[in-house]
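FW: tagging you since you asked about this chain on Friday. Here's the raw sequence from the shared folder, copied in full. Didn't touch anything.
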Amino acid sequence: MKDKKSEIFQCGKEIFKEKGFKDTNISDITKMAGIGVGTFYSYYSSKEELFLDIYISENKKEKNKILESLDVNKDPVSFVKEFMTRTFDAMHSNKILKEWYNRDVFKKLEKAFEKNPQAANESMRNFFVNLLKQWKEDGKIRNDINDELLAAFFDSLAYIDSHKEDIGIQHFPEIMQYLVEFIMKGLTDKGGSE
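HL: got it, structure written out here
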């Protein structure tokens, strides 16, 4: 039984990478997997559920790859600049993760993440938010900004990144580097918290 689910997963991953979420349908996946549509529904309730499983897997794989290549003990400004650069690179180079920027898919993913605490716990965002909280406790960043607002600073970077065409693509990735640097320098400036 696991072999069929694994085959559906692998075929779905391949087709989602090739066609994207919107243009992939269940019959594409079942045809490649050599199974009937009914068999698909024995393992997944929808295309969205399969995509979320694949997305979570890809997100975890990329997060681990990024973290293996970075030194968490670096100063917060340098670490975050490298972390954000590599995260945005991964989001743009991995066709599954890139679907996060598809507004229709994003809404579905966001709802699915809300319903699936494991998915949220495995995300790059969750790792980063927990790191910011730890730095706050350790006195490495300001403690006068609540955790939700702290996370929102960085969530806004993803929003800006998804609207780079509106801002002017010629300014990227430099604008992201400067924004990350400005945010982190502001957060590490202890004069602002006193």
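FW: The chain has a mean pLDDT of 87.
HL: agreed, and Residues 47-69 form the longest helix (23 residues).
FW: great, closing this out.
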